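TL;DR need structure tokens for one chain.
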Amino acid sequence: MHITQLFVVILLTGLKLSEVVGDCSFNKSQSHCTCSLLDLENGGNLFQCLPAFVFELRGGNLEKYATFASNTVQQPVLDILQTLQVTNIIFGDLLVPEVLLAAVMKLTYYMRITDIEFESCTFLGNASWFQMDRLILPVSSLRFHNVTSASLANRDKDFTHLSRWVETLQNLTVTLSQVTYIPCSIGKVFRTLRYLDVSENHLQDQSMRPSFCQGAFPQLQVLKLHRNNLSSFHTMCEMLHHLEKLVHLDLSQNDLLAIPSSSCQWQPSLRILNLSATGLDHITLPLPPNVEVLDVSSNNLHALDLALPFLKKLHLSNNRLHAVPSAKNYPALEVLSLDGNLISHLPRNELQSLRHLQSLRAGRNLYNCSCAGASEIQALASMESLMPDWPQNYTCESPPHYQGTLVKNVPASVLECNKAIVIIPVTVLLVLSCLAGIICFARHKARSG
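>> reply
TL;DR here they are.
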């Protein structure tokens, strides 16, 4: 197969790897082309992928082609690259020499590619990136998932060559890739990065200081640290305090230790905080003052008594709450999740005092279905679209004769639930009847005497 036909469609590198042929499939509705290098028999269907916006290359070892990275790309190849519509390239399950990676990245300068993803790839060796010096690539989003590469330590010179492009990068994801820290000098290069996801790695408290040193990631708005080895909420607050534009922070699935005496103040810019599945059994630390979304689900919380006047979404699912948090602490609340707790009663009047409340999830609790308890839940459920998990997740725990019954099936008529309405009048009638009988008897006896 001709060099141009082959690599424009497969690797988009224009390098002379005529031996590499793969089998491709094209999803026209999604404009997505997937090529496999593991099936080396048929290369005739590569041309169908020319209209693709998303190009995916999977399965193969490109190590033996590393020497071709030094080949000069001819102008006709560059002309064809400029005509392609592809905007997203995905590399998966590949062994890629870094020198070949450098060649591919350089060629994106001539294309419309804005997103590049690497999934389950291994990068081999180190490459010099001097050919990228002063180039500003159109790529604004870069994603690595489950990748292996040489350490970033002592790679400052390489990042200097990449700095013109890296300075413009908007989104960076490096997940499940055994990252232990980010060198401070590299963090400072990402001057306009808005989104950083380094979840499922090996970051620890002591590595946070160099990774997020003063001057690193100055424009960062979203930071995801989900499922690392972080342990101190206080340390996170201190290490991230200089991120003045941070809006969204995800610390979920880290085993965090809460320190009640912490005096660290979060940046007022922080609006979304995810502390789910962090093992917290209480929260008394200062939270971001302007937080609007707080997720503390899947913890061991027995109560939450914090005044958060701007909070709009509160997720408390799968904790150990025995009562609904006080509504007065969250006057702006729109979404409240309480499912999977130990709550026996939903206070209708208090919940209805939340004037902005649009969604309430409170299933899978231990409801007391006495008449008052059941009727209050049923009254809340009657409010249109308020409880999306009603009625299937609402069952009675007590009294015994209603255990396992859906709350909606518990009779809650006025006469059944307010027996005093019947008992008191009947009792009064009986007493009056008795008095009347006594008076009549007394008069009759007096006349007889």
